[in-house]
Amino acid sequence: MLSLQDSLLVITDLDGSLLDHHTYSWQAAEAWLARLEEHEVPLVICSSKTAAEIVPLQKQLGIEGTPFIAENGARIHLTDQAGEPMVNGDARDYSDIVESLRRLEHQFRFTGFADFSDKEISDITGLTLRDAQLARIREASEALVWRDNEEQFDRFREALAADGLSLTQGGRFWHVMATGSGKGAAVNWLLDQLPQRPVTLGLGDGPNDAPMLDVVDYAVVIKGYSKNPVVLQRTDEQRVYHTAHHGPQGWSEGLDYFITQP
């Protein structure tokens, strides 16, 4: 079991994990958020959301200035000791990714965020128009809706790979980013920047969270809504917990399981 007195770092997905899948509320996790703040346990967001979405959310949660991972690991935001911004160097520019996808539009049927309006994204996700606008301020990945068949999807993945791009599945969309990107790689890169590696506890609910949950010391697989299960490669089952509840209730359940409260 872990203690709040340990050198602990909590790394969390947002949608369907800390945030309710339908309402985007985190109120069911408020008690644990307060405990983490009281004991100065850093909370690192690792999400498919954009930086434009995460920064105001950090402020609401009272964790502004904390490093975070955006766009499924395609972008990492933190500052060095001099206060200068640092970003991972493997990311592809958003405009470059969109241009690559444009070249494939005549072969495959899909719609990316670059082609959606704010209202269309709001209708799909349940986000407000303002939040939908923030979701379209992308830096290093494209989110898309696949509209073609499974056979074409395999060819699409191959075409992306030939261009140095990969696909990962989120809760609502497929995400296109540079090959080698992902939540697991991003977490490892972030931890390598720290002077000393803390004990890490990760929480997530979707297939795109699996790489992150494989690299943390302790993993909470929150009950999700995806048709595809979260499949982990790790074999230390005693360090993995599957929750009975969804969203922030499951998030709190996972912390209850692993962390001994004072």
Describe this structure in words.
It is a single chain. The chain is of the alpha/beta class and 262 residues long. The chain folds into 2 domains: 2-88 and 182-260, Rossmann fold, CATH 3.40.50.1000; 94-178, 2-Layer Sandwich (Threonyl-tRNA Synthetase, Chain A, domain 2), CATH 3.30.980. Helix content is 32%, strand content 23%. It contains 9 helices and 14 strands. The protein has helices at 30-38, 51-61, 94-102, 118-125, 129-135, 150-162, 183-192, 210-215, 247-258; strands at residues 2-3, 8-12, 43-46, 68-70, 75-79, 85-86, 110-112, 142-146, 165-169, 174-178, 199-204, 218-223, 240-246, 259-260. The strands form 3 sheets. The chain has an 8-stranded mixed sheet, sandwiched between helices. Strands 7-8-10-9 form a 4-stranded antiparallel sheet, with helices on one face. Strands 1-14 form a two-stranded parallel ribbon. Strand 3 (43-46), helix 2 (51-61) and strand 4 (68-70) form a beta-alpha-beta unit. Helix 4 crosses helix 5 (129-135). The radius of gyration is 18 Å and the shape is globular. The two termini are 12 Å apart. The model has no long low-confidence stretch (mean pLDDT 93).
Structure summarized in a few sentences:
With 262 residues, the chain is an alpha/beta fold. It is built from nine helices and 14 strands. The strands form three sheets. The chain has an eight-stranded mixed β-sheet, sandwiched between helices. The chain has a four-stranded antiparallel β-sheet with strand order 7-8-10-9, with helices on one face.
